[in-house]
Amino acid sequence: MNTATYNSSMVNNLWNVIQGLSLSSTDQRWLANRLFESAKADDNEILAQARKAIEEMRQQSEENGNSEMTLDEINAEIRAARLARKQPVQQ
Question: Which has the closest alpha carbon to 41: 85, 3, 5, 83?
Answer without folding.
Answer: 85
